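Lab channel / #folding
Pinned by the channel admin:
"Please post every new chain as: sequence first, then the structure tokens as a reply. Keep commentary short and put observations after the output so the thread stays searchable."

First post following the new format, from NK:
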Amino acid sequence: MLSALSNILKITELRQKIVFTLIMFAVFRLGTHIPVPGVNPSVIEQLFNSGNLFGLLDLFSGGALSKFSLFAMSITPYINASIIIQLLTVVVPTLEQWSKEGEEGHKKITKTTRYLTVVLAFLQAIGMSIGLKQAIINPSITSILIIAITLTAGTVFLMWIGEQITAHGVGNGISLIIFAGIVAALPQNLGTIYNYLQAGTISYFNVLFFAIIALAMIVFVIAIQQGQRRVPVSYAKRVVGRKTYGGQSTHIPLKVNQAGVIPIIFASSVLMFPATLAQFVQTPWIKTIADYFQWGTPFQSAVYALLILFFTYFYTAVTFKIPDLADNLKKYGGFIPGIRPGQATADYLDRIMTRITLAGAFFLAFIAILPTMIAGATHIEGIHFGGTALLIVVGVALDTMKQIESMVVMRHYEGFMK
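Reply from TO:
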């Protein structure tokens, strides 16, 4: 372990990247403690203590939402903008053309995503300011606009930090910001468990059982995240002049969890809408609907799982274009042994993806309702570090480690992961 770390620290460029990433983390954590002007933090804290409606969003923001600080909205508007642009790429010809233009097209899409992030952030900030009007010291139009502009500026600054980490640090900056927010809540969660022990609400056996489940889930998530179906591909030999190309064999890695954590985010947004509406609109029929969708009830968990199954197939179909993959294979002389190129290859790959996506969808559904199951089994409640957060943390950690590993291998021919 020490030799592996020394290999990393010996590389000046990698060492500088890691230090830069840690500095950006420190700036992010500092921003979560800078309060938004004109807001009474005690009222916000009482609102969050009354229920766990915003618990998951607060977890992603690293506790900034419950403090209503500068980074209260976290990087969520950017994620929403990225998803919207990604989905629109399928139906808007201009975006589809940009996606095929390489680096220049990528820059145009990134620029469009930034503008959409600002618009979504400002609209979300206005909605939050109006919805939490009881926490504003002087709830005038001017105060609401100042708060909305401050929250929007915080999100834009976070977006800039994420891009700087991607360019000059290690790993994907946006993912690492979410990762840092989730990990930052770990000490508070451990403190909650300690308080439960001190109060006699739970026993040491409950804590041990919780730790065993958490460890097992980490192993399970890593196994599924790394799981893939390797479809063999062969390339025909081509003679161009005096050189021979092709003739080698490779494979197409089809991931079990192709959609990542996006289906859980989609399903959570849909299910949180009735509860969010009931939080601010005091109408009997809305409160009745919200009671049915109360987080953790059997009905809510069942609908949640079904929505995740649907969104997993939907997002996989939108982002993983099997016909384009089959056409590219045919164009470059590739074929799957025993399968004719073209439409037959597309049908074969679609059949495989349908089957492994089902396994990935059940995995995501299980991960999403896992916190409710753990709370019922161990009687440890109020811990938001559940399945969704675990999936994000493990995924980001694996991707970052792979990037560091590739940098180390480039210079030492031996990585740090054995």
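NK: The CA atoms of residues 71 and 154 lie 5 Å apart.
TO: also worth noting, Strands lie at 228-235, 238-240, 243-245, 249-255, 334-335.
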